[in-house]
Automatic annotation (TrEMBL):
Entry's Gene Ontology molecular function annotations: serine O-acetyltransferase activity
Alphabetical GO biological process terms: cysteine biosynthetic process from serine
Serine acetyltransferase N-terminal domain segment(s): 2-43
InterPro entries for the chain: Hexapep, Hexapep_transf_CS, LbH_SAT, Ser_AcTrfase_N, Ser_AcTrfase_N_sf, Ser_O-AcTrfase, Serine_acetyltransferase, Trimer_LpxA-like_sf
SUBUNIT field: Homomultimer.
This protein's name: serine O-acetyltransferase
GO cellular component: cytoplasm
Pathway(s) it belongs to: Amino-acid biosynthesis; L-cysteine biosynthesis; L-cysteine from L-serine: step 1/2
Pfam families: Hexapep (PF00132), SATase_N (PF06426)
Keyword Repressor applies: no
Entry similarity comment: Belongs to the transferase hexapeptide repeat family.
Catalytic activity, EC: 2.3.1.30
């Protein structure tokens, strides 16, 4: 870790993400000492380096241990940016070919998975600044655009445009986010146009 500039930078930026976006994290030291979302993320970063060095057996062993201890399952081949918040972390699953951009926030129970039928590049690509709500499931080689917000419990099977808001099972775009990335504001509530959309769908 001391010899890897990228890991050292990511450790600092991830700590800033936890301190800045999680109101229960009052101090940087709390992320370092107590928050398993942060611990599992940094452990993944080590496994990812091992995977890229060709030390795949050791990387997979570390993945297995991370899953056992933290209830977070991130394949070491997945590509995750910096400034990431894994809030709570419990039940998070990120598949082998998934890509997560910088400044993304992921709540508990998020799944970035395949459809079970594909080989090769088969997992989602999450754009910078996206917010993935609790229990959101995103399947297949699809893209969630930059600054998009996926509501809690949604099932996403199609591409989501940048700065849009997707809700439901299956998820549909029901509105657009404000200028600032939702991953930074951590606003999960739907806007007025969403409620108007829901109200208009009933007789």
């Amino acid at each position: 870790m001391m010899n890897d500039v990228d890991i050292r930078r990511s450790i600092r930026l991830d700590a800033q993400a936890f301190k800045g976006r999680d109101p229960s994290c009052a101090q940087y030291s709390w992320a370092l000492l107590y928050l398993k979302g942060y611990h599992s993320l940094q452990s993944y970063r080590i496994a990812h380096v091992l995977w890229n060095q060709g030390r795949k057996v050791l990387a997979l062993a570390l993945q297995s241990r991370i899953s056992e201890v933290f209830a977070v399952d991130i394949h070491p081949a997945a590509k995750i940016g910096e400034g990431i918040l894994l809030d709570h972390g419990t039940g998070l699953v990120i598949g082998e070919t998934a890509v997560v951009g910088n400044w993304v926030s992921l709540m508990q129970g998020v799944t970035l998975g395949g459809t079970g039928k594909e080989h090769g590049d088969r997992h989602p690509k999450i754009g910078q600044g996206a917010l993935l709500g609790a229990g959101a499931t995103i399947l297949g080689n699809i893209t969630v655009g930059e600054g998009a917000m996926i509501a809690a419990g949604s099932l996403v099977l199609k591409h989501v445009p940048p700065h849009s808001m997707a809700v439901g099972n299956p998820a549909k775009v029901v509105g657009y986010t404000e200028k600032e990335d939702p991953s930074l504001t951590m606003k999960h509530d739907a806007r007025r146009d969403y409620f108007e959309h829901v109200a208009g769908s009933f007789p």
